[in-house]
Amino acid sequence: MNISTLDQLLDKLWSDYITLNPHALEIHNIFVERDEDVINDHIAFRTFNHPSVCVDVLAKPFLASGYVESGNYDFPSKKLNAKHFEHPDKTKPKIFISELRLEDFDAELNEIVNRMLSQVPENASDNFAFCVSGRPWTVTLDEYEKLLEKSEYAAWLSVFGFRANHFTVLANELNSLDNMTDLNALVRENGFLLNESGGAIKGSKDQMLEQSSTLAGKVDVTFDCENTKKIPACYYEFAMRYPKKDGELFQGFIAKSADKIFESTNQRKS
Ligand code: OOG
Ligand code: NI
Predict the structure, then answer these.
(1) Domains of the chain, with CATH numbers?
(2) ipTM for the predicted complex
(3) pTM of full prediction above 0.95
(4) 85 in ligand 1 pocket by Cβ < 6 Å?
(5) Which of 25, 96, 69, 101 is nearest to 257 (CA)?
(6) 2-28: per-residue pLDDT in tens?
(7) If phi over 0 gives left and psi between -120 and 50 gives alpha, with beta otherwise, what is residue 138?
(8) What's the gap in Å between 213 CA and the centre of ligand 2?
């Protein structure tokens, strides 16, 4: 199907995401069976800060659909920048896009990434659905492992490319649960693992945002036509937002919490 509208793009992102990450659909369905309206707070993407694929390039279809840049973030230890985008129609999910700062890494990482990026067809990002096109390059197991030593994020991106890294259930809209502790208990009771890095609940009411996330489910990735390895793909996030002084719910992100949420796709223990 030719994807040319925002709703088609959001549908495609969801179908790609639940195909790769059946655990997210299972959790989604647990809420649906409880008669909940599952509202998606935000969708996140990862990329490199190279001019051909940077945050502003991935943001193009969203900007063209009415989204507005609404916040930017710095992750010094992971060497990432990020921005979030909001739509005037508040029923549309926020978009969170991060990018790896290539200049903060050594020549070896840059050589591997440049070789990957040289395979991205020119004008590829003109395609409205570029952000759900997956990985446009080849990567060997040796390259993956070298990237993993330097950056979990770079290694993840080398394998999974451009797609939704996660969707996020807006906990505020769940009628049968009114706090993150009970939500996490429900997810755990159903057999899913949570990202415990820095504690299961990241953030606080004072910060106006509490978040938790599953640990990404592992999928088989075949390298070099022969070596298959289990690699954490994507995760499902849960977010409870609290009102600002003006009574409106806080819509931003908290860098200290996000720093830990990124680790939901880690291959190694942090
Ligand atoms: C993004 C992690 C940050 C949030 O809501 O704070 C995040 C990622 O893992 O790519 O999604
Ligand atoms: Ni998130």
Answers:
(1) 6-265 (3.10.180.50)
(2) 0.99
(3) yes
(4) no
(5) 96
(6) 899 999 999 999 999 999 999 999 999
(7) beta
(8) 8
